[in-house]
Amino acid sequence: MRFLVASFLTVLFSSHGLAQEASSSPDSNKLPFKISPETTYITEPLTKEGRVDYGAALNQMMKKGVTPETNAAVYYWRAMGPQPDGLESEEFLENLKQELGIDPFSENGPYMVNFRPPQKAVDAGQDPFADYNAALGSPWKSDDYPSVKKWIDLNQEPLDIVLEGTRQPHYFRPIVKTANEELLLTTLLPDIQQMRELARLLSARAMLAIGEARFEDASSDLIALHRLARHVGQGATMIELLVGVAIDAVAREGDLQLINCETISVEQLKAHQKSLSELPTLAHCDRAMTSERMFNLDELQTIATGNPKSEQGKTFLSFAGLDASSTMGAILSEMFQHSIDWNVVFTGINDYHDSVGEALSLDSFAKRFETIKQLNQELQAEYQQANRPSALALSVLFSPQCRGNHIRLVLLSLLTPALEQVVVAQTRGNSNAPLTETAFAVAAYQKREGKLPDNLQQLIPADLAEIPLDPFTGQPVHYLVNNDAATIYCLGKNLQDDKGITQQENRNEYDIVVRIPKQEPVLAN
């Protein structure tokens, strides 16, 4: 294969006529592709070099209607401080302030501190994070885990700022680039990992409040966790969407601990249920995919205009099995790069994202999942066909358009995220709301009536206005009851009723389940 490609490139550029055929061959003042909605998706703003500035475009799109005073991201940065996870880039921080329109660090703290395991546990050879992990998963009291209590006490002021942030109507976490970052894909996300630690901090404080029967405080922290999840999920990257889903799952586990408290009253259950019902849905995949499109096109224009000695140029050599360090490799890279019709590549990738956007707009999980799956199967089949030695030889021996189509397939196979899994994760995340809302209604009914409801219809209208819907099916959530517990569940990605089988019980086929144990009635306060 390496011989085929190298031989082709040498023959190709020994022919002046074929080299001139490359419609995308640039002169010193012209890009090797046209800027248009069909190719680059957007046509402005432009960089000083005349390329599309996708980072600026994303920031403009995300910050519409947002002010520094209503932007939750400002509060989160104010709580975390200027060095999450050891960030030391002054240029990043200056650019962040400029994009936010405010300096979130002007008050100089106090800033959030991460959990530090007790030295005595380390010296004794014990698990230094045992208390930390235990405090996140179940109710506890101050004397149970002193190191975790100290961690929470150190962070009271930052947590107050976070709670204020979760009450804000907007979230704009800008794309922040520095001079050393040529691609959007390389931009830093130091705060997003810190958001996970922030979520754990809120969860630990909520578990402490539940353990001490301070149910209103626990509810406040859990609702803040849900709001934090929704804010983070609105970010510009697929990573932020998935982190938002993960944070919401932490909040849901806290909700279930609250439900199972024997001393919580009907009024307290219903108050938390009402707060849950007022939450917006988690961010949808389509926003993240708009950003993914721009990230991919940004990568593409950098490759198309890059120096053959750059990382992008080396990428092209690796496609051909060539070595960038040799003189011949550099020559062949230059030849190969400028013998491609880049408009074909841009248009093809843009068209693919159009198809993904149409799939994500379909009105059911089954349609979205199957359409995305079919798109990816067709892409992989086309890629495998194009990579056969005979097909590759034919494509490179013909026109720049043929070569552009081959590069389109290569790039799509590399750049396309695991969309089927993303659709499942996002839909699974959206199952938290109907399950927990129904669970609180069942728990309130049980405390009031002294028994579990026989069916969900018994909850209407006193505890539910209507039965919440399973986002996987669009139908009401499922409900089973026996002598020990009630099981509320969504069907999951297999769309089969597995009668409340959980992932722990069957890793391959399972439902998404909440169980409410049978309790003795407790009089309302």
Per DSSP, what share of the residues sits in E-state strands of 2 or more residues?
under 5%
Structural class from helices and strands? Answer: mainly alpha
Helix content: 55-70%
SSE string, helices as H and strands as E: HHHHHHHHHHHHHHHHHHHHHHEEE
Any low-confidence stretches, pLDDT <50, length ≥5?
Answer: 1-29
Q: Care to give the gist of this entry?
A:
The chain is mainly alpha-helical. Helices cover 55% and strands 3% of the residues.
If you had to describe this structure to a student in words, what would you say it looks like?
With 525 residues, the protein is mainly α. It has helices at residues 2-12, 16-21, 54-62, 72-80, 90-100, 119-123, 130-137, 146-154, 156-166, 190-211, 215-232, 238-259, 266-277, 285-304, 311-320, 327-337, 342-360, 365-386, 389-397, 400-415, 419-430, 432-449, and strands spanning 478-481, 485-490, 512-517. The protein has a three-stranded antiparallel β-sheet, covered by helices on one side. The chain is globular and about 80 Å long. Mean pLDDT is 83; it is low at 1-29.
Topology:
Blueprint: H1 2-12, H2 16-21, H3 54-62, H4 72-80, H5 90-100, H6 119-123, H7 130-137, H8 146-154, H9 156-166, H10 190-211, H11 215-232, H12 238-259, H13 266-277, H14 285-304, H15 311-320, H16 327-337, H17 342-360, H18 365-386, H19 389-397, H20 400-415, H21 419-430, H22 432-449, E1 478-481, E2 485-490, E3 512-517
Antiparallel strand pairs: 1-2, 2-3
Helix pairs in contact: 4-9, 7-10, 8-10, 9-11, 10-11, 10-12, 11-12, 11-13, 12-21, 12-22, 13-22, 14-17, 15-16, 17-18, 17-20, 18-20, 18-21
